[in-house]
Structures are given as structure tokens and as C-alpha cells.
Specification:
By secondary structure, the protein is an alpha/beta fold. The protein is built from 7 helices and 11 strands. β7 and β8 form a beta hairpin.
């Protein structure tokens, strides 16, 4: 589960981020509305923990961006005590949709964590069962994978990694996020575990390669063949044939 925390009070932001990371979530942080928009444009998030009263670019503007872009991100709005939970009234009598959840400051961290987890599970339950990119089609409901009409016999981990990369829509996904999303237990050698699984997955997908290794960052699913990306960058066929 990937979360973006947007809070200008650095102590509070660090407390929230540290706690959510202890709960094994992948968490990014922004201290301003502008920084939040940069993150939202670059990465995909399940949950946005958003301070309403941000200086400069207000929290309402950040939330409006989520709505206008039809992002699947669920929004937990943090508000000062005494503020109502109704929708924002816009010029001309229009009403902006309300956030998915609202939490009043001050709050207990356990309450925030539980709200974030609930929103994250809700976001994932609403995902489309069939996803497709670069000629690869994944039916998550029936656990079927096909490339250019050719069925793929994938292991559970290979299927999980492929699903994460497809859902990221071209955004780079790091080793830690893949481990969190796909592995039930933390492997002893994290990077090698991901490399081996990516190697066997790419071998089964065949040529031309569509999964690109981004040095120092992770992996992404391209719009077409990952030209110039040698199989050895992610372990290649020689990394192992465990299926």
C-alpha cells in the first residue's frame, strides 16, 4: 500500500510517516501543496493523508486536483478542531465533493493508521480486474496472464510483480514496494529475491522486452519494447527458472 502524507508541520508529518512505515506501508512525504502536486503527478498512491490548512497552495486545491484528474487515490483530510466535514462551497453555488474520510486534530495515531488502512483496502477493492499494457493482458479475477494472445504460465510471485508493474502505469516501482506488495514474508536477500523473480518473469514474457530496469530506482512497464535494456539488468533468463 502506497501513501502520500502532506503536512506542513514537520514534527507531526515525521510522526505520521514513521508510524505508517512501522506498519509496513510505503510512505512519501510533502510539506506543501506544490510538493504534493509534484508527487501526485509523478507517482500513484492508494491513500493521500492531506492537511487541509496548508500555507500557499491550500489543501482544497490539492484535493481538487485529485478529483479533476479522477485519480483512484483515497483522501483522508486532516482538519483543525471545529471545522465542519461538509463539502467545500465553490463560486456559483457549486459544491466540491467531500473527502473520503476526515480526521480532526489532535488525533491518536492508532486512529489515523486504522483509517489509512481502511481507505487503502477500499481503493484496492475498486481496482479493475483486467489490466493491459504493452500487449500484456492480466485478468486478476481469473488469475490469467497473456502476451499478444499467448498464455503465460506464471508463478504467484511473478503474477504479483507483473500486476504491480502494470497498475503503476509506467511509474518506476522500487524493490521495497515490490517486496511489500508481493512477498508474504520478508526475504533475507531482498534485492536478489526481486532480481530473480524479475528474471524469470521477463524470460516468460519473451522478446521484445517490456519491463525496463531503471538503475538505482527499480523497474517499470514501458509503453512498448524496453529498447537497449539487456536481460542481465534484472537477472535475465540465467537468474533462475523457478516458476
Amino acid at each position: 500500500m502506497r501513501v502520500l502524507v502532506v503536512e506542513d508541520e514537520e514534527f507531526l508529518a515525521d510522526m505520521i510517516v514513521s508510524g505508517l512505515r512501522r506498519a509496513a506501508l510505503t510512505v512519501d512525504i510533502a510539506h506543501s501543496g506544490g510538493g504534493a502536486l509534484d508527487r501526485l503527478r509523478r507517482d500513484a498512491y492508494d491513500v493521500l493523508v492531506l492537511d487541509h490548512d496548508l500555507p500557499g497552495l491550500h489543501g482544497d486545491e490539492v484535493f481538487r486536483y485529485v478529483v479533476e484528474q479522477a485519480l483512484p487515490t483515497r483522501v483522508l483530510l486532516l482538519v483543525a478542531s471545529g471545522r465542519g466535514a461538509g463539502p467545500t462551497h465553490l463560486p456559483g453555488g457549486r459544491q466540491e465533493p467531500a473527502a473520503d474520510d476526515l480526521l480532526t486534530k489532535p488525533f491518536a495515531f492508532d486512529v489515523l493508521r486504522d483509517r489509512v488502512l481502511a481507505l487503502g483496502h477500499s481503493a484496492r477493492s475498486g481496482r479493475p480486474p483486467v489490466i493491459e499494457r504493452s500487449g500484456v493482458r492480466l485478468d486478476t479475477g481469473r488469475r490469467l496472464a497473456v502476451r499478444d494472445g499467448r498464455p503465460l504460465a506464471l508463478s504467484r510471485r511473478e503474477f504479483g510483480v507483473l500486476e504491480v508493474l502494470l497498475r503503476a502505469q509506467g511509474v518506476v516501482v522500487g524493490d521495497d514496494e515490490l517486496i511489500e506488495e508481493v512477498w508474504e514474508e520478508q526475504p533475507r536477500h531482498r534485492t536478489n529475491a526481486v532480481r530473480v523473480t524479475l528474471g524469470t518473469l521477463r524470460a516468460k514474457l519473451g522478446d521484445p522486452p517490456v519491463i525496463e530496469a531503471v538503475p538505482g530506482a527499480g523497474y517499470r512497464m514501458g509503453d512498448g519494447p524496453a529498447a537497449g535494456d539487456a536481460p542481465s539488468a534484472s537477472g535475465g533468463p540465467a537468474a533462475g527458472a523457478r516458476g
